[in-house]
Each structure stands twice: as structure tokens, then as C-alpha cells.
Amino acid sequence: MEFSSKLLENAVNEVSQLPGIGKRTALRLVLHLLRQPEQQTLELAESLQMLRTQVRYCKNCNNISDRELCEICSSTKRDRTLVCVVEDIRDVMAIENTGQFKGVYHVLGGKISPMDGVGPSDLNIVSLVEKVKLGEIKEIIFALSSTMEGDTTNFYIFKQLEGHSIKTSTIARGIAVGDELEYADEVTLGRSILNRIPFENSLKGS
Ligand SMILES: [Zn+2]
């Protein structure tokens, strides 16, 4: 792609780093921004900069938060003895949308995936085990997507928690194997949390 302007080329190159955005789409987006009022682009740039430099993670659940403790963890209405283990914030948002879960979350920050070079130590697993050791948690619900990586991660954590007297369960699978949680419809996802099954049962036949 030949550019008449180095400034334009730089902007297109930066935007095209985003997932799913090729050079052509990047060019279209950048030209769009140039046609909009200058203020709009400056606000976009500022919000991204603020997000990047000021983002915080809840010290209890690792969810993205503006404060030390996220709204869910600091709410008095949530049951802290019930912890739902999810991959990332999109899963928290999907489950919150169902309105069916009154516990708290633990955000792992990914799934174990040797192919992508992601091992247990790259995820927030140690902090989960530490929390369980404190003795307040009664049940852990695994709500990772039902992919090979999700299953591997569940099993790894399940093994880490062996010997602690807590219940482990997994969300019932109205959700087809390979579906990502965030795409599951709210009714199905809500029901699958209510109808969760003991984790051991999910291992049988697999
Ligand atoms: Zn939190």
C-alpha cells in the first residue's frame, strides 16, 4: 500500500495491529476519523491512553476495575462463599447479564494452552488456591468454555484443590462443546449455572 503521507501510514499501521483489522479496513477507519471533528479523535486517543495507564485489576477477583475492589466484590449482597471461575471479563459480563448468579468471581486471565505457550503460572491460579486455603469459600463453580483448553484448565485447578473440603461444580452444558461462554444466550447460560453439576460427574465418560 503506497501512502502519500507518512502520518497517514503510521496511523494505518497502528490500527491494523488490532485483531481482525487488515490494512484496508485500517485505512477506512483512519480516513473516517479524519472526516470527523478533531475532538472526537482526541477523545478516542485519550480514553485509550487512560485505559492503558490507569487500568486496575480487582485485588480479590482480578476483574478489570477502577478501584482496588470491583463493584461485585465490594457488594454486601454477594455470597462470598460461592466463587465462579471464569476466563476473562467477558465471561463475568455474560454471567452478570443472566441475573442468576449471586456469588463472586475469580478471573483467571486465560486458559492453559501449551500450543500458545500459556502455562498454569501465567494465569491467576495460585491466588485462587490461596483464597480457598483461607477457608471462607464453600463452592467453586468452573465456568470455562468447554474446549480442550477449558477442560485442561478446570482439571488442573480441580487437582490443585484436592484435599480442601470444598464443593467443586461445573456449569451444566446446555452450551455446545467449543462454544464460548460470551456467545451463549442469557437463558441458556443462566439455566446452566442454576443446574450446575458436581465437577467429578463431568469427568465421567470423558
Ligand atoms: Zn472483584
TrEMBL record:
It holds the Pfam family RecR_C. May play a role in DNA repair. It seems to be involved in an RecBC-independent recombinational process of DNA repair. It may act with RecF and RecO. Keywords: DNA damage, DNA recombination, DNA repair, Metal-binding, Zinc, Zinc-finger. Residues 81-176 form the Toprim domain. This is Recombination protein RecR. GO terms for biological process: DNA recombination; DNA repair. SUPFAM superfamilies: Recombination protein RecR.
